[in-house]
Amino acid sequence: MTEKSSTTAISVSQLKKMYGDVKAVEDVSFAVNEGEIFGLLGPNGAGKTTTVECITGLRRPDEGAISVLGLDPQVDREALHPVVGVQLQSSTLPDKLKVSEILDLFHSFYQDPANPEELAQALGLSEKVGSYYKALSGGQKQRLAVALAIIGQPKVAVLDEMTTGLDPQARLDVWELIERTRDRGTTVVLVSHYMEEAERLCDRVALIDRGHIIALDTPYGLAEKVTGGKQVRFVPSQPFDDGLLKTLPEVKTIEHQGKHVKVVGSGQLVNVVIKTLARNGVEALDVQTEGATLEDAFVQLTGRHIHEDTKAQST
Asked: Which helix (H) or strand (E) holds 262?
C-alpha cells in the first residue's frame, strides 16, 4: 500500500439517523484520510449504508456533522457532485440503453473523465458494450455501477457492497481496479460485509454493529489487538483436558470445531501448544497456523459471526 496523506478527506462527527423508532445509526464518528481506502464493515442492518448515504447527501442526518472535502453534503451538493462518485447497493438505469451509451453519457458529465473503453475492459464488460442494460446479468450490472462511480475520476469514491453477486475472477478484477483508482489519488470509502475484501484492500477499517462503531484500526492491527494475533488449528490424537492449554499465558481462547481444536493466542503460541500436548501424551495432527482475521475480531467483539442475524434490507 502506498503512503497516505494525513489530510482529512471526510469527517463524520456524532452522526445519528432514525427510521421511526429504529436507530439505524447512533453517535457514529470517524475521519477518512486523503488517498486511503477506508472500510465500513459489518452485517446487513448494521448502519453502513445509512452512514454513507448521509455522507453523500442522499439522506439527511437527524443529528451530527459531516464534511466531505471541506463541504457540507446537504448544503453544498452541487459542488460535491463532480468530485464524489457513488455506487449504491442497487441502482436502476433505462432498460433500452446500451452499455456503451450509458458509459458515454456518464463520461460526458465530467471535465476529465476516465476512458470508458479501458474501464469496460478492466471490468470484463468489453463484450457487453453493445448489449442493452436489461440484458445484463446482476453481476454485470454491478460491475457497470462500479464503472459509473469512478468514470469521472472523482476525488472521493463511495462503493457500497461493490462485489456482491460477482464470481471470484470478477471480484479480483474489481479489487485490482479499486487499487489502481486509489493509487491515482482517489480516496475510497468501501462498504462491505466481506472480511476478505477489507483485508485485501483497506488501509483502515471501522467495524459497525447495530448502529455503533465498535472498533477502528488497520485490518491487521484490529485483528491482532482483539484476538491476540495468532491461531493454531489441529486434530488431537486423543481427547485432552482443555485445562492443559488454558493455563498457558500464550493462550487466549480454545474452541472445538468438530474433530479440530482452534487455539488463539500470542507469542510462541504454536511451539508452546504442541510441546505442552506432547508432554501429556497428545500428538497434534494436521496442524494449521495463521494470523488472526477481521472475522475473528468481529466474533470476539460481538459474540457472533458477521453473517448471523442479517436482514433482507440493509440500513
From this structure: strand 260-265
CB burial readout 33-52, b (16+ within 10 A) else e: bbbbbbbbbbbbbbbbbbbb
In contact, 232 and 270? CB cutoff 8 Å: yes
Using CA atoms of 217, 218, 223, 224 in order, give the dihedral in degrees to the nearest 10.
Answer: -90
In angstroms, the CA 25 to CA 11 distance is 16
Per-residue pLDDT tens over the stretch 139-170: 999 999 999 999 999 999 999 999 988 999 99
Contact 122, 179 (CB under 8 A): no
Cα–Cα distance between 43 and 310 in angstroms, integer?
6
Alpha helical stretches, state H, 151-293: 168-183, 195-201, 219-227, 243-246, 269-279
Rounded to whole angstroms, what are the CA distances from 241 to 101, 233, 254, 269, 304?
A: 67, 16, 11, 18, 25
What's the maximum distance between 2 C-alpha atoms anywhere in the chain? 72
Task: Using pLDDT thresholds of 50, 70 and 90, give the confidence band for residue 129.
Answer: very high
Question: What are the backbone dihedrals phi and psi of residue 212, each rounded to the nearest 5 degrees, phi first?
Answer: -125, 145
Domains belonging to the chain, first-starting first, are: 8-219 (3.40.50.300), 230-291 (3.30.70.100)
